[in-house]
Amino acid sequence: MFEKILIANRGEIAVRILRACKDLGIQTVSVYSTADKNAMHVKMADESVCIGPPQSKESYLNIPSIIAACEVSGAEAVHPGYGFLSENASFVEKLRAHNIHFIGPKADHIKTMGDKILAKKTAEKFGLPVIPGSNGEVKDYEDAKSIAKSIGYPIIIKASAGGGGRGMVVVYNEKELEDSIKKAKTEADKSFDNDTVYIEKYLKNPKHIEIQIIGDNSGNMIHLGERDCSMQRRNQKLLEETPSKIIDQKTRDYIGNLTVEALKKIKYSGAGTVEYLYENNEFYFMEMNTRLQVEHPVTEEITKFDLVKEQIKVAYNSKLSKDQNEINFNGHSIECRVNAEDPVSFMPSPGKIINFHAPGGPGVRVDSGCYSGITIPPYYDSMIAKLIIYGEDRNTCIARLERALGEFVVEGIKTTIPFYQEILKEEKFLNGDYDIHWVENYMENKK
User: Fold this and answer.
1) What is the pTM of this model?
2) CA–CA separation, 293 and 380 (whole Å)
3) How confident is the model at residue 164 (pLDDT cuts 50, 70, 90)?
4) Does domain 207-446 have CATH number 3.30.470.20?
5) Rounded distance, CA 342 to CA 350, Å?
6) Which pLDDT band, with edges at 50, 70 and 90, does 405 fall under?
7) Domain 4-103, what architecture?
8) Closest CA to 32 of 17, 52, 46
9) With CB atoms counted within 10 Å of each terminal CB, which end of the chain scores lower, N or C?
């Protein structure tokens, strides 16, 4: 097993990985920007290395600084967490050139699945259902007009290198099309330094269902069921749960096995998540994330399968610890992303946390890098904690979630806790009758 791992991330995910490493008896190295010098992941690690100033591009995205930190500390491997460099194929290749292991998939798989156009073509080639749309890049307005006419409005324009909802524009008629193409390409270029866009049919009321998989270097692969990630705002997930209220065991086996068989064909190894839109009992491939997901804990709760430990073991060339028939799904789990944001406007609310008290009791887990007195910097993602609840069934899970939200204390900044307390009272949520547009419609109706 690896003797020392560097965690190339910050916040709650860095803490999560540190804990997994400690459980495995592995020494840890944290990296941090000057804005994070007092962060929990810095305090918890066996060693820590400052890699630059607050701005991400000069610290957490600074590949030479991270490689230098590996060499100075003697770290044999890097766990990237999610975000930052977790899906950067060039980073993987540069680590390899310095004889440093990457805890994640191969660079070629990141390249294939990271490009949304190439990923869609690959998915279709290996038997996954895809949404009707352009067969590759949309060059200009005339090209877009022809495609839109063939598949019918509404359509959605997406950035090929996109993620996090950026570079996406919904178009309802031809009058909007020309300006929308320009808008999407401009945003894509600004966000990803790549203005390539493509077009898909826009589904009106889909669920967002994703399948968690993990494979090893010996050709073994399993799925760990689905997560329902439909509770989102502007394509940013807010709450995730598993199992989905609308997916039965037969459907779970079908889409899980289909996903596994497709990824086996490209000899994928490591953890990954294939995301689908689900409408009228049909799945449509959307994208694949070649990394650990923010919402991985809900899967861990109902399967009792530690995804982070398994990632590390697979990267060390171990075989998967379980076969598909050893994966059991028990109970229900829900995760709320607690963000440092105004619960009404969702505007960021950085600043000093004067008092932080995490809830507890049966079925309650909090993944966070926060404590009383820490300052939340304005430079990074606003998520400060994940509240993960387990219950024997969905009703028990929701009751525990309501209790835990009431116990959660974060003073000094605004958080999204009141938003979750509000939606727990909504009949649509209680019935599981919500889609990816529900939050925006709910907020619009409140005005």
Assistant:
1) 0.92
2) 17
3) low
4) yes
5) 10
6) very high
7) 3-Layer(aba) Sandwich (3.40)
8) 52
9) C
364-368/169-171 β-pairing: unpaired
Contact predicate 334/229, CB 8 Å: no
SS3 310: helix
Say yes or no to pLDDT of 162 above 80: no
Q: Are 337 and 371 spatial neighbours (Cβ–Cβ below 8 Å)?
A: no
Predicted confidence (pLDDT) per residue in 272-290, tens digit: 999 999 999 999 999 999 9
Is 291 one of the annotated active-site residues of the chain? yes
Q: Annotated catalytic residue: which of 166, 291, 337, 400?
A: 291
Q: What is the CA radius of gyration of the chain?
A: 21
How much is the pLDDT for 166? 76
- Helix/strand/coil percent split, the chain, to 5: 35, 25, 35
For residue 242, the cross-strand partners are 333
For the segment(s) 132-201, the CATH number from 3.30.450.20, 3.65.10.10, 3.40.50.2000, 3.30.1490.20 is 3.30.1490.20
Whose CA is closest to 225, among 200, 250, 202? 250
Q: How many CB atoms lie within 10 A of CB 319?
A: 12
Which residues are CB-neighbours of 340 under 8 A, at least 6 positions away?
348, 349, 350, 351, 376, 382, 383, 384, 413, 414, 415
The three-point CA angle 430-234-137 to 5° equals: 130
Query: In angstroms, what CA-CA distances link 11 with 23, 32, 265, 292, 342?
Result: 19, 10, 35, 15, 20
